[in-house]
Amino acid sequence: MNAQLMLIQVFNGLVNGAFFALLSLGLAVIFGLLRIVNFAHGALYMLGAFVAFALGQAFGLGFWPALLVAPVVVGLLGVALERGLLRRLYGLDPSYNLLLTFGLTLLIQDAIKQVMLTRYAVSSAPYTIPEALVGATNLGFVFFPTYRLFVIGFAVVVCAATWFVIERTRVGAVIRAATENPTVTQAFGIDVGRWVTIVFGFGVALAALAGVLAAPIYSVEPYMGSELIIVTFAVVVIGGMGSILGSVVTGFAVGVLVALGSALYPPIANTLVFVLMALVLLLRPNGLFGLPETK
Amino acid sequence: MTALPVTRDRARRGAALVVAAAALILLILPHVVYPVLALDILAFGLFAVAFDLMFGFAGLLSFGHAAFWGTSAYTTAWLLGHGQSVPVALLGGTLTALVVAVPVGFLSVRSIGIYFSMITLAFAQMLSFLALQWTDVTGGENGLQGLARPGLLGLDFTNSMHRYYFALVVFALGCCAAYRVVRSPFGKTLVAVRDNETRARSVGYSPTRFKLTAFLISAALSGLAGSLFVFGHGVVSLEVVNWRTSGEVVMMTLLGGTGTLFGPVAGAAIVLLLRDVLTTASLPVGVVTGLVFVLAVLFFRRGVVGTLQGFLKARR
Amino acid sequence: MNKTVLTLTLALTGLAGAQKLSDNVVRVGVLTDLSGVYSELAGPGSVKAAQMAADDFMKANKAYAGKVQVVGVDHQNKADVASNKAAEMIDRQNVDAIVDLPTSSAALAASEVDRQKKTVTMVVTGGTTALTNESCSRYTFHYAYDNFMLANGTGTAVTKRGGSSWYIIYPNYAFGQDLNRQMTAAVQEAGGKLVAPSDATPFPNTDFSTYLLKAQSLRPKVFGTMQAGADLVNVVKQYNEFGLRKQGIGLGIGLLFETDVAALGQDAFAGALATVPWFWNLDERSREWAAKFEKAFGKKPTWAQAGVYSATMQYLNAVARAKTDNSDAVVKALENYRFSDFFARSAYIRPQDHRVLLDVYTVQVKSKAESKEAGDLFKIVSRIPANRAFMPLSESKCQMK
Q1: pLDDT value for B216
Q2: Of A113, A138, C186, C226, which is most buried with the most CB atoms under 10 A?
Q3: Are C112 and B235 in contact (CB under 8 A)?
Q4: Taking CB atoms and an 8 Å cut-off, how many pairs form between chains A and C?
Q5: Residues B297-310: pLDDT tens digits?
Q6: How big is the CA angle at C54 (ends C51 and C56), to the nearest 5 degrees?
Q7: ipTM of this predicted structure
């Protein structure tokens, strides 16, 4: 593999990594505070893309406003899910959360499939790149699609902002306190329950945001998140459950590694992540950035 | 305290009654539903029992149990395709599942909780990749069909009734094995480890070793179930190693009743009958099964058998 | 034979003899995907098409009035469900023939059950060439298309039209590998060349940028994609994103359904070449049938659904010729039969491997501007006659049993 091809693969990997990072960041935030493994994260990613498409069809809403509106809409749905369903399971074995969100995944995917077929008569929804980002940019070694460069940059900004809010602000301090010791935090007069809802909604909104970003370049279909979520789980395990920084760094790193690996032997791409995960777990059972799990 | 022997006696009688009823249902089942479907209920039922051994009794939620079911299914298919007899194929499938479970179990039981679920899922994904690629053995996405099932002891396995009753015997043996495990001192220790790992360790047990043994037993029984599935259909496809299959067995166990050991058989029956009804209804399968699953997790966590047990206990 | 004569003959045969039908009814089971990924291109539309065939047949053959029934069953794209349901339909519902069968593993599984239970099977939406090769069966007929016909048609036609240099990518599983092999052979046979060895891509896959960038630097005249379904939609979406068309790199597609085009909009596919057995505005006869279908179902038919109508009708006609629904007799009536209907032209049912030969078309997707009416997607680039469209018998590995 020559240097130019490797460099190209690094950029391709960063694009995939951007999606891994946004999704695993959302998973990490939710897991950190709620100890929930949100299996429905992939379905909610799909929902983000679908809502962007549906808003476009109904109100002619373009990509830019959709980038804001769709995550808010899906985030609110997340709030409703947390309040209405997940809340009933707190205090039980965390496995039940995983099972509930697994059921939700089946439900959401097939429901959207029905809506797409009956309302829009398509099995996969068309969505185009925003006018301003069509075309390619000269990177010196290759002409790389402008929109993809935007995806990388945008994901980095969102991840950095999230990290900043959680690690460096008062709001973040409250969230972290609520994560580490809910009882004590509650005693300080902070409504932990409300923060739990907000954080869940935010994590879901991040998934939806990734979905909107994916809509112009990937097929918008009901099962677009179902394979992706499995890979993202592996990313989260490699990075360490609940680690904000770990999930972002691992997201990008895995994206690049897989891209380089698949340039050498393409069919391996889908499995490389899992092999990587097995290796990491052998050496560091709690992931690269994770703290020992307590039950 | 004086009432105790009476209660125990009644409990035993109640249990015997339930077992007799269940046996009767299984005996007449293929005359009520289509025999191949009835056999599916046995295969998935045993799979769910094996799963419950780990989830209900060891507290480990595996999200990759399709790995063992699927490994055995392919091995059984390969053996049948190469002229082996049915017992050899069933045994071969079971053993291969066990062999695969050794490294997977070794690597995963060191983790707990959600980590464990994710790791088992990842291993299952690797196997599913292997199944897609290794077309000489698995037939890739075409799968394998028309597997011969040579008759045995006067049984004609081209007849689905004969297949069912043969499978019922294997199923019963598998269930007996699971029952013996749960009722043995080993089973009791397993539950103790689940409930309080630190205490179990402090009295001298190695939790990891217990969990690994449970993992291997569960994988072998899942393998036996997977080989029954292939024996029933004479076909095998990639579906057997798909993560949806791993999810399905969780759903069956939950619906039947986690930690009730045989409740999952009822759960398997419910899921398969529901799926069967949906083949002629125009309802979307995912919406219906997803909804049932969500409702079960929210309101029916003890499952059919668990709820029934609670009801019987309350009456006493 | 023209249409009136055909109808008349059929009517006469129908009136002439008392038929021998098991339980006095001919039942056709449509085993398909009613709610999954193929439900739009086959699914409920296939069931409707089979029902229309039954109704038309009964109208034309008075002796069969009220004696043909159609049942639709969902196989959920699972091989075990397909084998289970096929057996159950035959044993419990006395189904005499099974049609459609999307998903290769499901089609093969059902075909095997039907062989054991001696039931005629018309595979329409399933595409694996195994059905007429190593897994061929005395009772199974492969109707509309298969991998060989797709690759052979597109590879040959595109190369002959000047698309002489190719770069091909294929998903790394049997369907893709098979298609790649056939396509490469067809391109080379027609005098074209591959500018680089074909690349296997992961399956499933969403991001194809690696291969699109490679195509940019290789500058072939045609970028061949053997992906199908959601993966194909991803490839084409990104083919547009990377601006390959503007750079003069054409698009050759292995397997294209009308539903794929709808998913991205016509313009994303404009100019792409693929091979199909039929499309609704192929000619006046096709239009006529498509209008009837649209009236009954509310949507334009896909080629898979039209194929189900034709396959069902040909089965029923064979029952009428054999004057019985006994499978062995019907198979005999189907074998060696030559016919032409709105879907299958110059068709011939090859007895040695049960491949149904028919004229197929290499088509180019029209841009929105070229499109004259709603759903006007394809223009014909070349018609491939039935006897050259499919795998020659000499290559078939079928040993009929």
Answers
A1: 93
A2: C226
A3: yes
A4: 91
A5: 888 888 888 887 77
A6: 110
A7: 0.85
